[in-house]
């Protein structure tokens, strides 16, 4: 008569199937966390680009407000390049000077637009001020 060995109740451990299921569950959880980190980094970079565009606009506007009144005429476009996170990012600054007919001829409106692209999506930051004689 063959001898049967029955598993004792004190033998503990994981079967191969249980280990594979645990690994799959962990992998799905980790991939979700990596995606969340990726989205957070993308939003952070987009906000840093916007903040830098605001700084470029403010600096340019302060320079323009220092100009004498009679030198504020016409339009111009310049490109300002800033280094961020190890890469250079160009910002296109468009300036438009015009008399403000709604006020008087002693006032000029200065319109400033700072444009940049992020992942082929255009963004713009506008600043408007008025300069008097």
Any overview of this molecule?
- By secondary structure, the protein is α+β, with helices and mostly antiparallel strands.
- 38% of the residues lie in helices and 35% in strands.
- It has one domain (16-132).
- The chain is rod-shaped and about 115 Å long.
- The termini are far apart.
- The relative contact order is 0.13.
- The mean pLDDT is 86.
Question: Topology, please?
Answer:
Blueprint: H1 16-66, E1 75-84, E2 87-99, E3 107-118, E4 121-132
Antiparallel strand pairs: 1-2, 2-3, 3-4
Radius of gyration: 31 Å
Largest sheet, in brief, is: 4 strands, antiparallel
Strand content: 35-45%
Structural class: alpha+beta
Low-pLDDT parts are none
Give the strand order, joined by hyphens, for the main sheet: 1-2-3-4
Order of helices and strands: HEEEE
Relative helix content: 25-40%
Number of strands: 4
Integer count of domains: 1
Global morphology: rod-shaped
What separation lies between the terminal Cα atoms?
A: 115 Å
Query: Helical segment tally?
Result: 1
Rounded average pLDDT: 86
